[in-house]
Amino acid sequence: MMTPKFQNVVSTAASVAATVMLLRSFTRNYIPPEFQNYLHSKLSKLLSSFSTELTLVIDEFDGLTTNPLFAAAQLYLKPQEAPNTKRFRATMPSKSRHVSLLMDGNDEITDSFNGVPFRWRLVSRRGKSNFAVHFFEVRFHKKHREMVLSEYFPRVMKEAEAARERRKTPRLFTVKGKRFRRGGRKELWQGVNIEHPATFATVAMDWELKEMIIRDLDRFVERKGLYKSVGKAWKRGYLLSGPPGTGKSSLIAAMANYLNFDVYDLELTAVNGNSDLRSLLIATSNRSILVVEDIDCSLQLQDRLAEPKSSQPHRFIPRHFHSFPAPQVTLSGFLNFIDGLWSSCGNERIVVFTTNHKEKLDPALLRPGRMDVHIDMTYCTPDGFKMLASNYLGITEHPLFVQIENLLGMIDVAPAEVGEQFLRDEDPDIALNSLMELLLEKKRNHELQIKVPLTVE
Ligand SMILES: Nc1ncnc2c1ncn2[C@@H]1O[C@H](COP(=O)(O)OP(=O)(O)OP(=O)(O)O)[C@@H](O)[C@H]1O
Ligand SMILES: [Mg+2]
Fold first, then answer.
1. Is residue 25 domain-shared with residue 66, that is, in the same domain?
2. For 287, left (φ over 0), alpha (ψ -120 to 50), or beta?
3. Would residue 94 be called left, alpha or beta, if left means φ above 0 and alpha means ψ between -120 and 50 degrees?
4. Nearest partner of 118 among 171, 82, 75, 67, judged by Cα
5. Among 249, 380, 417, which residue has the most ligand 1 atoms within 8 Å of its CB, making it the best to mutate?
6. Separation of CA 395 and ligand 1 centre (Å)
7. Distance set, CA 167 to CA 17, 28, 97, 259 (Å)
8. Whose CA is nearest to atom 31 of ligand 1?
9. What protein family is recorded (predicted)?
10. pLDDT digit string (tens) for 374-393?
C-alpha cells in the first residue's frame, strides 16, 4: 500500500510534471546512456528525500506520437493472469484475428522481476477539452532504479515485441504497380491478411518429408545464435518443385501460418530491372517468406549459346517485356542480392522458389548451398489420398479405398484433382465413386496412348 508520505509526493504537481518530462525523454531515446544519468539525478533529487518508493509515469503519447513504452506495457501486462483483476478490456485491432486483453483504467497489477515487486497502475483521467488521458504509473523501491532502466524496461519492450509477433496476423504482400507507389519504402508492396486455410495438417504429402520440413523450420527459427556465431546471414532457402496442383503454393501458406511470417510474393515480371528489384527486396520485413513462383517461366533465360560474346552472365528478360529491350533483371543480380546484402541486413528470412520444371532451371539455382532444402511435391500417393479423404470427407476407411489406392499406384493424379472430386458431394460414396471414375478414365486414356502412340513427323 502507498504510504501517506508517498501520496504527498505524488500529489505534488511539480514532481509529477518532472517525472512525466523525464519519462518522455526516456521513451523518446530508448534509454540512451547519457539520459540514464540525467534521469537518475533528477529522480533522486526530487523523490529520494521523501520516500523509499519511486513512481515512474509512462504517458500514452510523446508529443503527437504514441509512446512505444506505453504500447509495450499494454502488451506486457496480462490482466487475465492477475489473480485480483475483476475487469479488463477486450479489443480486436483492425486487420487482426486476435483479441487483445488490456488492463482497465485505474486498475493495479503486481509484477515481479529478479525478485523485485513492481506495482503497475493504468490511470485514466479527463484532460483538457474533456479528452481522456491515459498513463501508466509503475512503483518500485528506489534502490532498484538502475536495474529498472537497464534491465526491467528493456525486458518489457522485448516481451511486448514477442507478444506482438505471436498475435500478428500474417500478411501477404504483392508488388504494387508503379503508378500506385507513393513515397515510403513500404509503399512498394500492398498487403492483405493471409486467409489461406492450408496448414501442415491439411497438406497431403509424404509424412516423413512433412516432419522434416517442420523440424527444419523449427531449427531455423531457434538458431539465431548459431547463424550469428558462424557469420552466416539468418536466411534459409527452399526450392519446391512438382507438377501443377501438387500443393506447392499450399505448402508455402502452411509454412507462413505455422511460423506466423508475412509472405512477399515477388512477381518478377512486374519488376523493372535490378535496381527496382533491390528497392523491393529492401522494403521487405524481417520474419518473412519471399516467394518467387514459377521461377523457370517468370523469367526467360536468353540463350547463352546464342550470345557467346556477352559479358553478362545469366541474363534474364522478363517474359512480358520480351520484345522490349530496356527493363531487365539478371539471375545473377537477383541471386547475388538475395545471398549477399539483402539477407545480411535482415533476420529470419525465408526464400522459396517454386517450379513445375526443375529440369529447366539454371544450374546456378541448383548448385549446392544455393537453396538449402529441395522439396519435390508429387502426384497423389496412397497415403496422401487417405489424408485428403480424412480431411475432405471425414472418413478413414471405405470399401473403395483398396481399388483407389491400386489405381493411384498406376496413374498420375494431382492432389488438387482428388480434392476437386471430393468437393462434388459430401456423401463419401458419391465422392469416392466420382474419384474412381476419374482414375479409370485416366487409366483408359493412358492405355490408349501406349497402344496408339501419337507420332508427328
Ligand atoms: N498436397 C496437397 N494437399 C492438400 N491439398 C492440395 C494439395 N495439392 C493441391 N491441393 C489442393 O489443390 C489446390 C491447388 O493446389 P496448389 O495451388 O497448392 O498447387 P501448386 O502445386 O501450387 O500448383 P501450381 O504449380 O499450378 O501453382 C489447393 O488449394 C488445395 O486445395
Ligand atoms: Mg502454385
1. yes
2. left
3. beta
4. 82
5. 249
6. 21
7. 35, 25, 8, 12
8. 416
9. Belongs to the AAA ATPase family. BCS1 subfamily.
10. 999 999 999 999 999 999 99
Residue pLDDT, tens place only, 15-66: 544 555 555 555 566 666 666 666 666 665 665 566 788 999 999 888 777 8
Between 279 and 239, whose confidence is greater? Answer: 239
Which three cell numbers mark 138? Answer: 509503475
Pocket residues: Cβ below 6 A from ligand 1: 202-205, 242, 244-250, 356, 377, 415-416, 419
In terms of domains, do 342 and 356 share one?
yes
Question: Which pTM was predicted?
Answer: 0.70
One domain for residues 11 and 123: yes
In a domain, 457, yes or no: no
In which residue are the cell numbers 529492401 written? Answer: 282
Domain tally, the chain: 3
User: What are the cell numbers at 362?
Assistant: 539454371
